[in-house]
Amino acid sequence: MLDTWSLQVLVAVAEHGSFSGAATALSLTQPAVSRQIAGLERRLGLRLFSRVPRGVRPTPAGAVAVELARDTLARLRTLETRLASFAELESGELRLAAFPSANTFLVPEAIRRFGDLHPGVTLSLRQTEQAALVTSVRDGRIDLALVTDWHLYGDPDAAKNAPTGTHLPRATVDGVELVPLADEELQVALPTRHRLARRRRVRLADLSGETWIEGGHPDCLGPIAPLAEALGGAPRIGFWCDDWNGKQALVAAGVGVTLMPTLAHLTLRRDVVVRPTSPALPARRLYAATAAPAFRAPAVTAMLGVLADLALRRP
């Protein structure tokens, strides 16, 4: 394969009509340019220039070679420019995926802030099966996904037995980097008129007779074993709702109670209150799942910074 320097010399000779003119333009000696063209001609098995009284001119084969070389060099310059714009966050695309409670405030606010900082980057939020969030990042269909340790273990009850501190024995899962953002406390959501709503902390044993509202993974009641132990029996689930607006509406109507992660607190209705529980329930760890740093696009790194800042400032 021909190298780009040889193509630049070829074009320079054609443009200046002489080896000496090309040498001056390229800051080379005339013999160096002559050797470069001779090497090209040997490589291609064709004469590229013929001598004329005041220099050289391309042969028919040389004229074709010069035209293609110009096109190739122009494409390479375009490649460099386009890739530089990605590195400088002037263009490109960032594909996100998350789960419902993350989409109540954290993700929309992160998109808004990122868009203000980097308006040239196109952002999208993709609908992805919850069980496929990590594999979507691994397969390159998603650039950054918000997941919890419940996603990673596939079962909230299994997550409660994870190692303390990091919750994960390794920094990657299936080749995907996991960047911890926050530990979320699960609090009980009650209607403002509930008999326990004025308490600063609610004993779960006092909710043993309540009807509970369950949701889809990972926005569910979490590890059932510690909840059931604190209640004195398995929670009586009367309603199932994946939508956070719907969950809060059911709570506000007084037909049931539920557990609410920290992520959803900023969209709390005025007729619903959240209270810490006694005993405290296992926390849910929030991660950003991305490609490993060596393969991570600059836009992903920038979004990680936005998410980390928001996670620190959340209630």
Which range best describes the helical content: under 10%, 10-25%, 25-40%, 40-55%, 55-70% or over 70%?
25-40%
**Total count of helical runs of at least 4 residues:** 11
Shape: rod-shaped
Q: Major β-sheet, in short?
A: 6 strands, mixed
Instruction: Write down the secondary-structure element order.
Output: HHHEEHEHEHEHHEEEEEHEHEEEEH
**Number of E-state strands:** 15
Strand order of the largest sheet: 4-3-5-15-7-6
Rg for CA atoms: 31 Å
Task: Indicate the structural class.
Answer: alpha/beta
Give the low-pLDDT segments. 162-170
Proportion of strand residues = 15-25%
**How far do the termini sit from each other?**
59 Å
Oligomeric state, counting identical vs distinct chains: single chain
Mean pLDDT: 88
Protein name: LysR family transcriptional regulator
InterPro entries: LysR_HTH_N, LysR_subst-bd, WH-like_DNA-bd_sf, WH_DNA-bd_sf
Family: Belongs to the LysR transcriptional regulatory family.
Domain HTH lysR-type: 2-59
Describe the structure in your own words.
- The protein is an alpha/beta fold and 315 residues long.
- The protein is 39% helix and 21% strand.
- The protein has eleven helices and 15 strands.
- It has helices spanning 4-16, 19-26, 30-44, 60-87, 106-117, 133-138, 149-153, 156-159, 224-231, 244-252, 298-313, and strands at residues 49-52, 55-58, 93-97, 122-125, 144-148, 172-173, 176-184, 187-191, 202-203, 211-214, 236-240, 258-260, 272-275, 277-278, 284-290.
- The strands form five sheets. A six-stranded mixed β-sheet has the order 4-3-5-15-7-6. Strands 12-8-13 form a three-stranded antiparallel β-sheet.
- The radius of gyration is 31 Å and the shape is rod-shaped.
- Residues 162-170 have low confidence and may be disordered.
